[in-house]
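Readers outside the structure-tokenisation community will struggle with the description of the input data as it stands. Showing the layout once, in full, would remove most of the difficulty. For illustration, here is how one protein appears when written out as sequence plus structure tokens:
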Amino acid sequence: MNLNTLRNIGIMAHIDAGKTTTTERILYYTGKIHRMGEIDDGAATMDWMTQEQERGITIQSAATTTYWRDHEINIIDTPGHVDFTAEVERSLRVLDGAIAVLCAVGGVQPQTETVWRQADEYAVPRVCFVNKMDRVGADFFAAMRDVIEKFAVPAVALQIPIGQGAGFEGVIDLIRLREIRWDEETEGEKMTETDIAPERRAEALAWREKLIDALSTTNDEIAERFLEGRDIPEALLRAEVRRGALARAFVPFLCGASRRNQGVQPLLDAVVDYLPSPLEALPPQGFSPKKEEYVPIPCKSDAPLSALVFKIQYEKEAGALCYVRLYSGKIKTGDQVFNVGKKKRERVNRIVRMHSNKSEPLDRVEAGDIAVLIGLKLAQTGDTIGSEGMPLLLEKMHFPEPVISVAIEPETASERERLKETLGILSREDPTFVSRDDPETGQLIISGMGELHLDVLVTRMLEDYKVKARVGSPQVTYRESVSGRAEHTEVFSRVLGGKENTAEITLTVEAAPAGSGNSYSCAARAPGVPGEILDAIEAGITNSFGAGIRYGYPCADINVTVTKIGYSELSSTPFAFEACAVAAFDAACAKANPELLEPVMKVDILCPQEFLGDAMREVTQRGGIVTGTESKPSTDVIYAEAPMAKMFGFSTHLRSVTKGRASFSMEFSRFQVKPGGLGN
């Protein structure tokens, strides 16, 4: 495989910016599909799930491989809805480059900011495609300014539009100084190129000068040629755009209207010309347990195997489909691979390349590529597949914690096992979906990222997996913490089976900075205390973090330090110390001013200006705080924060007061103290 001609890219954006429509056009023009499917008709290739087709949104990231100009392109189409942010997170982790699709009317929208931050976190180079240039209120230059202002990143236009809104005809290529239009009769497959019309030449030259100015700051040859009035070769300009894009010194901008089949082929050219191959992408760091240090993993097929499982998808006949990105080495069908984190060997029964929900068998997969392994029974999202002789552990993926829960109850006792099995499959697929048994009520509780997220998962259980169950109303998932500091000494003594079990522990608990998580440390000088006793104490504390203090909700932001251990060789047992640690934790937390934390959501509302006041009232009446507003050409944006518990049913009320013309997105912001505890 020639890695120089391979591209691993993702398509990311806010919901309704046109990601899936753009992907459909890419697949059509590269010959991967022979008919373009539309989201509105429920026929989009990449939205293959029944619910995606019914709801008209992308829920799961879908992968496919296509070819353009003798380059192989692995494409992942990611969801735009904030409830499915985990799908975006794990896709960006394994991609080398990305297309950020912006709406020409909305510009940078709320979820655009989220995915942009995620791409920054993983240092993913990107190109921007301003879509929907044919919409009323479209403004290519305003979308560029939006990116510059919101993300403090330079933007470089490689094209400018010929007309905007209803008058959008095509684009002017600033590198070649040519006008490009698309033929409607051939669904945009044929393009016509002409010289720039005299009335548009001055504007085109002005924008080309801005492009050259941006490139000449790092390339003396371009600067000299421009100042001397000499021609600047296309190849030189493209090479410098590529260098700047890969270094993330600026973001190249293109535009079009995917729904009208305009602008997609130059976007494909930009993927090939300006986004990195696996050899140019930043190499990941792997932790070596032997050397106790991080080492870079070179993208070489003849190096030891190193791959990341970034997604699990369950298929009835094949079982678990493990999507992997190979960073080094190669895997052949029938090979044994080593799960580094679990220290287990597994056999790869089959290797396939996915095209949405269809598969194509492969004999092998090599460094730099993305494929699906079938036969791995233990692998989970975030696991490292590597070499047993030289194991390197890739950094695990971090996902936000669920903030909303519902109780689910099987209709019959015989359905309970089937329900539990289905929950296991879904939670393996989606790391932000968790289930647990409530010890007080005996109910099964499922938790997710939002109402839509849980609604989708519950529908899958009932319709796809045919589980017969009753579902309760959504409930908020709270957290428990402490606001003070306390020390406690716990003595444990119990006779079991005629043998005395004793333990003594002194520990302190104190509040940790918000968002820092829980931590445990042992500062006790414990000569002669066996390792199994220390492990038992740690197990007792970490189990207590999950069991809560008063209400049974998980703990957050608590530091626990064991300062003294009373150990007796004759009577102390691991069981006694684990039980003692649990009791000590509960007692110390009770002294340290325990408090209940509630999730606060970041709410972004898009609505016409005439309904601005009504929409703001809806938020403030629910205990929310408006943190700012922003005016855009066709709509206003309200930025607010509100407690999750008060936001149930908000969608219906917002639609009512704005006559159905407003929309909103909501994502978890932080946990804060809930005034008055559970009673309020």
